[in-house]
Amino acid sequence: MPVDWFGYVYAATVAAGGIMGYAKAASIPSLGAGLAFGALLGYGAHLNSQDPPRPLLQLGTSLFLAGLMGARWNRSGKLMPAGVVCMLSVAALVKTLVQNNRYLLPAPTKGA
Question: For the whole model, what pTM was predicted?
Answer without folding.
Answer: 0.86
